Amino acid sequence: MKEAVINKAIAMRSRAHAPFSNYRVGAAVETQSGEIIGGCNVESSSYGLTCCAERVALFRAVAAGHTSFRSMAIATHNSGMPCGACRQVIWELCSDIPIHICNEQECVKTISSKDLLPDAFDKSKLL
Ligand code: THU
């Protein structure tokens, strides 16, 4: 349900490893089976190796055997939107799902992953 994925994303901010930017991001994905799996951003001193919270959450979910997803939530102190790389990964792994954008307390808006990446490039172009 909506509250569970939102609350998990907000809670996951406390796990962020962000010593370089201090920008703490929490994310959570709701699987088709109803599990909620969280992620946080993990930064590297070799900055390009940093992994965003959204991708950590999704990759954890995939590694745990999940293949289908119902919703996601992302939490930052200023209700930031997902970066372009994460929009691509969300679209490819989740197709069209609601994405709840949150601050430290609550969901401030919900947008569909399709609207986050119009005219997406994906496997349908490779067939
Ligand atoms: N970050 C995310 O975790 N998700 C996004 O969609 C945007 C950026 C992280 C990466 C880095 O650790 C910090 O935020 C600043 O860019």
Report on this structure:
The longest helix has 11 residues, at about 1-10. The protein has one domain: Cytidine Deaminase, domain 2, CATH 3.40.140. It has four helices and five strands. The protein is globular. About 35% of the residues are buried. It has a five-stranded mixed β-sheet with strand order 2-1-3-4-5. By secondary structure, it is of the alpha+beta class. Strand 1 and strand 2 form a beta hairpin. It has helices spanning about 1-10, 55-65, 85-95, 115, and strands at about 25-30, 35-40, 70-75, 100, 105-110. The mean pLDDT is about 100. Tetrahydrodeoxyuridine (THU) binds near residues 23, 83 and 86. Tetrahydrodeoxyuridine binds near residues 21, 23, 41, 43 and 54.
Task: Give the helix/strand layout.
Elements: H1 2-12, E1 26-31, E2 36-40, H2 53-63, E3 69-75, H3 84-94, E4 98-102, E5 107-112, H4 113-116
Parallel strand pairs: 3-4
Antiparallel strand pairs: 1-2, 1-3, 4-5
Bound molecules: tetrahydrodeoxyuridine.
Number of strands: 5
- Overall shape: it is globular
Small molecules bound in the structure, each named once: tetrahydrodeoxyuridine
CATH architecture: 3-Layer(aba) Sandwich
Main sheet characteristics: 5 strands, mixed
For the record, what CATH class applies? Alpha Beta
Class by helix and strand content? Answer: alpha+beta
Q: What is the alpha-carbon Rg in Å? A: 14 Å
Q: Strand content of the residues, in percent?
A: 15-25%
Order of helices and strands: HEEHEHEEH
Number of helices: 4
The named CATH superfamily = Cytidine Deaminase, domain 2
Mean pLDDT across all residues, rounded?
Answer: 98
